[in-house]
Specification:
elongated, mainly alpha, 6 helices
């Protein structure tokens, strides 16, 4: 799930474990949370209403409520908007490229286009 992640720091080799992972309610399963807990990664994933209801129904045997950092979860919106801008390019949204290298090159090209467009908006 997180094998290809690399978090760059100021010096040294990139870390392979982020401090936190934000996801929507679709990733709130027990397996996802256990995987992140095993790797000592904070899960910023809200709990589904049905999961909370089942936990409460079990009473004290249902376990603790899931911790959720609402402020960190709000930053997830920035990433979602960027992904939507990337997918606005048809080649990326439909995966026309057959090789991973050419798909990644398309992602880099689209990201550069977005960056240049944002730069030209901020220049007076």
């Amino acid at each position: 799930m997180l094998e290809k992640i690399r978090v760059r720091g100021p010096v040294g080799r990139p870390r392979t474990r982020p401090d936190a992972v934000a996801g929507d309610k679709a990733y709130s399963s027990r397996g996802s949370r256990a995987y992140l807990r095993k790797r000592r990664i904070q899960a910023v994933i809200p709990e589904k209403k049905d999961q909370a209801a089942n936990r409460k129904k079990k009473g004290s045997k249902g376990g603790r409520p899931v911790s959720h950092d609402a402020d960190l979860y709000k930053e997830r919106n920035t990433v979602e908007r960027l992904i939507n801008k990337l997918k606005a390019w048809r080649g990326i949204a439909t995966r026309y490229d057959k090789t991973p290298e050419s798909y990644l090159a398309g992602l880099h090209l689209r990201a550069a286009m977005i960056w240049i467009k944002d730069l030209t908006r901020t220049i007076p």
